[in-house]
């Protein structure tokens, strides 16, 4: 199985090393990298191309009481 087959657009992922939850926007057929986007703070939208081996599916955040 190719390493990018486990992720698809719409998945919520996080870097294995931690950080913000990101949404997978697309998977590159040629490079295998994922285009992910996230909000850093309240208004700063960011995007990056990331290798799938650096990511894991994000666990849902617990609701605050």
Summarize the structure.
The chain has strands spanning 12-15, 22-27, 34-40, 44-50, 55-57. By secondary structure, it is mainly β. It is globular and about 40 Å long.
Describe, in plain words, how this protein is organized in 3D.
This protein has 65 residues and is mainly β. The protein has one domain (12-57). It has no helices and five strands. A five-stranded antiparallel β-sheet has the order 4-3-2-1-5, with no helix packed on it. β2 (22-27) and β3 form a beta hairpin. 9% of the residues are buried. The mean pLDDT is 87.
Characteristic terms for this protein:
mainly beta; single chain; 65 residues; 5-stranded antiparallel beta sheet; 5 strands; globular
Mean pLDDT score: 87
- How much helix is in the residues? under 10%
State the separation between the terminal residues, measured CA to CA: 41 Å
Q: How large a portion of the residues is in β-strands, by DSSP E?
A: 35-45%
How many domains in all?
A: 1
Separate helix tally = 0
The multimeric state of the shown protein is: single chain
Structural class: mainly beta
Largest sheet: 5 strands, antiparallel
| Envelope shape | globular
Radius of gyration: 12 Å
